[in-house]
């Protein structure tokens, strides 16, 4: 008789939602170095403000469709007419400030890309180019923000990015692997460190 498989040990937050579990197991905490992908994730984390991440995750494909695949060069040229169409799109979060913020952040992103070392380099320099590996045992130990997320938030805001407060930025840093906040009991804690080399 084959013994039953050991249950996989995970962070508790995805619970038993299949979409959330896939996100936790395949994406969350994997180091991301692509400039455009980082813009998309920062914008989506901004849309999450006041909501749960699963709400945004369920609408992510709708967001990608509505925002032209999160190509900043396209978003930066959005007209008032396009913004009104987005406000009528039931597939996304219809928040005018966040929609307008997405456009302003796209323009800020273009400026960073044209006048600096690039968006990825700007952000990853805050953690010296490699993930900060935490060793938390419980969810209670995980902070809502840190000195680094506060510094990154300030830098982004000064450059014209919107919806980039310290808590949003820390959630973003966790998602894109700048910090590894998988609990040490989670099967992904060590796995994500082997992924996503620049």
Write a structural description.
With 198 residues, this protein is an all-alpha fold. It is built from ten helices and two strands; from the N terminus they run αααααααβααβα. It has helices at 18-26, 35-48, 53-66, 72-75, 80-87, 96-115, 119-124, 147-158, 166-175, 188-191; strands spanning 132-133, 179-180. The protein has a two-stranded parallel sheet. Helix 2 crosses helix 3, helix 2 crosses helix 9 and helix 8 crosses helix 9 (166-175). The longest helix is centred in the middle third of the chain and has 20 residues, at 96-115. The chain is globular. The chain starts with 17 loop residues before the first helix and ends in a 7-residue tail after the last helix. The relative contact order is 0.18. The mean pLDDT is 95.
């Amino acid at each position: 008789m084959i013994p039953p498989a050991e249950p996989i040990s995970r962070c508790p937050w995805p619970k038993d939602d299949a979409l959330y579990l896939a996100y936790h197991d395949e994406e969350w905490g994997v180091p991301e170095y692509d400039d455009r992908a980082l813009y998309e994730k920062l914008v989506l984390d901004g849309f999450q403000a006041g909501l749960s991440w699963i709400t945004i995750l369920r609408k992510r494909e709708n967001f990608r469709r509505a925002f032209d695949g999160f190509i900043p060069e396209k978003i930066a040229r959005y007209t008032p007419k396009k913004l009104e169409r987005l406000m009528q799109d039931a597939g996304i979060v219809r928040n005018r400030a966040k929609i307008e913020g997405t456009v302003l952040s796209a323009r800020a992103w273009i400026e960073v890309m044209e006048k600096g070392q690039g968006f990825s380099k700007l952000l990853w320099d805050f953690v010296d180019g490699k993930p900060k590996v935490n060793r938390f045992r419980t969810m209670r130990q995980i902070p809502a923000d840190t000195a680094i997320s506060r510094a990154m938030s300030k830098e982004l805001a000064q450059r014209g990015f919107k919806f980039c407060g310290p808590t949003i930025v820390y959630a973003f840093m966790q998602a894109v692997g700048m910090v590894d906040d998988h609990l040490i009991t989670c099967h992904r804690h060590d796995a994500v460190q082997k992924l996503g080399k620049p």
